[in-house]
């Protein structure tokens, strides 16, 4: 069983420790229904300046203080097999929505583990509803699960799990800013106190 979702998956190696630290919502976290800031304007998942991006707008859930959600139209360019979404596009969408959830409890975190279980085909031309929920934390590690459906939350088409590790964003990205499409903008952001 997928923890918290009550849905059987094909397989999962994701194990949530029993001794998780309690979660505490960050005082500056987005309120229920509010959008959560994008990672970077050039981000493939949420960036408005990413020419081939998903352009997801992730919002804090209205029914759970540790969950986020978004919708994504499944467009023709996302096709993998005939008429269905490419698995890598779905995994990217899951990575995006799950990476936003840690912002509800603190600063930047990066993906260290991501897995996706594909349950049913996701047809081009549909709208995918994605939701991620923080399960807990253990020191710097944050455990997150996600689900996707096509309008009926009881009929999941995919689930995902991830582990994120909190980082000092300035130090973590400092050596890579030069490679960004918007490197100068990132340098300015990282130089602020």
From TrEMBL:
In terms of InterPro entries, this protein maps to:
HotDog_dom_sf, PTE-AB_protein, Thioestr_dom
Where does the Thioesterase domain lie? 83-153
- In terms of superkingdom, the source organism counts as Bacteria
What this protein is called in its record is PaaI family thioesterase
């Amino acid at each position: 069983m997928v923890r918290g979702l009550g849905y059987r998956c094909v397989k999962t190696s994701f194990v949530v420790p029993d001794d998780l630290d309690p979660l505490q919502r960050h005082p500056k976290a987005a309120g229920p229904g509010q959008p959560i800031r994008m990672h970077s304007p050039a981000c493939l998942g949420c960036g408005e300046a990413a020419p081939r991006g998903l352009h997801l707008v992730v919002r804090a859930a209205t029914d759970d203080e540790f969950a986020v959600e978004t919708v994504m139209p499944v467009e023709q360019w996302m096709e993998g097999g005939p008429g269905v979404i490419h698995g890598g596009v779905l995994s990217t969408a899951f990575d995006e929505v799950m990476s936003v959830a840690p912002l509800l409890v603190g600063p930047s975190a990066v993906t260290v583990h991501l897995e996706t279980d594909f349950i049913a085909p996701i047809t081009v031309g549909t709208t995918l509803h994605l939701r991620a929920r923080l399960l807990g934390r253990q020191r710097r590690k944050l455990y997150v699960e996600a689900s996707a459906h096509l309008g009926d939350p009881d009929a999941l088409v995919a689930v995902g799990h991830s582990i994120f590790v909190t980082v000092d964003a300035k130090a973590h990205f400092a050596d890579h800013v030069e490679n960004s499409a918007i490197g100068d903008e990132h340098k300015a952001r990282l130089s602020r106190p």
